[in-house]
Amino acid sequence: MADDARTNRLGAYLKARRGLVTPEQAGIPGGGVRRVPGLRREEVAMLAGISSDYYLRLERGRDTHPSSQVLDALARVLRLDETERRYLHDLAEPRPRPRRRHTPPERVPPRLHHLLDAVGVPAFVEGRAFDVLAANDLATALSPRLRPGQNRLRSLLLDPEEQAFQKDWTASAAGFVAAFREQAGAHADDPRVVELVGELSLASGRFRELWARHDVRVLEGGTTTMVHPVVGELRLHRDKLPVDGVILVLYYADAGSDSAEKLALLASLAGSPAEP
């Protein structure tokens, strides 16, 4: 993360988000040549009902404690959804914490290792920066990138095999980067977060583009489509369950579906029993 973005996260977020709102979306005539994409500072201020000077102080980090009413007005002008609005409030109202808090290492509880061995679906444990901390054999059979020591975000952005594995790689990449920013919000100074942002900023142009947008999203359960090199297309549901500071992730198919049969084939190839 650049130093100014790390020390003035509220201002960086406001600047990035106003660049994504067109004058037409805000109800402002867009005629004439505009030097910047999106809304000008004075336009945001006018629409939010605050002075241009005050908004400039917010964006430049000279005032970092706007009221909740001002934040909600800015969220409305910038067309933020509920997740983005909460993120904006968190930037302006950070939770108190010790100056140099030590981030404890992420550990997988022993019971999760037992669960991974017992559950009959692809399952793995991930950390706050999408590091894979543990996985069962069926998860590794689903994707070799789902093994301890791998990082899901790095694989998605830098590994051509993972990109081919995701049927809609463009949407997956955007969603993961937005979820990473949301998760990193409370750990902005975590050395692992800083390291990963630095690595991906140097290695991936797509990451730089997405990171500059400041999108935030909660990556929860859902349904995704993967293209496995052996069994072909799989439509799987995904659940993410928090357990003692880590996340248990499970993939499973609808009972009796074509994808369920393909998972059973993968399990037989991996030597693991699949869930009936």
Automatic annotation (TrEMBL):
Residues 38-85 form the HTH cro/C1-type domain. The lineage of its organism: Bacteria, Bacillati, Actinomycetota, Actinomycetes, Micrococcales. It holds the Pfam family MLTR_LBD. Residues 89-109 are annotated as: Disordered. InterPro entries: Cro/C1-type_HTH, Lambda_DNA-bd_dom_sf, MLTR_LBD. It comes from Xylanimonas oleitrophica. One of its GO terms (molecular function) is DNA binding. PROSITE patterns: HTH_CROC1. This is Transcriptional regulator.
